[in-house]
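quick one before i forget lol
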Amino acid sequence: MKALFLTSSLSTNIKDENNNKIPIKFENTNMILDNFKKYIKKYDNFLYIASNPNDNLVTDLYSDVVFKSFDLTLPFRSYKVLDNRNINDADKLVSEADFIYLAGGHVPTQNKFFNDINLKDLLAKNDDVVICGVSAGSMNCSFNVYSPPEEEGEAKDKNYNKYLKGLELTKISIYPHYNEDEVIILDNLDMKNDILLIDSNKRPFFAYPDGTYILKTNAAVKLYGLSYRFENGKYYKFSDDLEAKDIKKYDM
């Protein structure tokens, strides 16, 4: 792995009046485009790894938008999807990839898929690849993935597992799409006060909105943009928008 981007979201589309996703050229928010250009050295093979290997319709819909957005911004010669339709080619697809996009979605579903295809070991064979996680894809990059409940019924399910075996690309855990002013209620629980803050006693994590990301290379680990640190049952503002902060000590 040459570089790892842990994003909350890439702004690859806008929605029209019918709520259809229209691909757009994504912007250089918090220098992400500059950093992509710095670390991507080959533009031959783009690999999109699905979050749900069995939901081909949704995968094709989302991957098509991502492919077209990159074609407008940083075009690659070949775009491919990895899901249940070509699972037997996983080794070849991953080894040939110059850029791997780990899609967003349901964290436990994607986590199972990654483990089923032994993605951790497949990635270890490709030293030159640039990896970009998006939302769930970023969360599943950790050694010990923090997977808070997100669907109805999960928060009150005593058997729901919040801690999963990840890709072991970083020791940092993240919570994406975080909005300090938003109140999220799940199963009659307040997401921030009843779930995130309590869970931070067991495993600390960074929470940040769309547009913020972490970049890990051999030389450094930096957080770009607005973020919050949750730990020991408390949280605080960690960094501001347009700021790049060294966080290598959290990945050791």
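fyi The chain has a mean pLDDT of 97.
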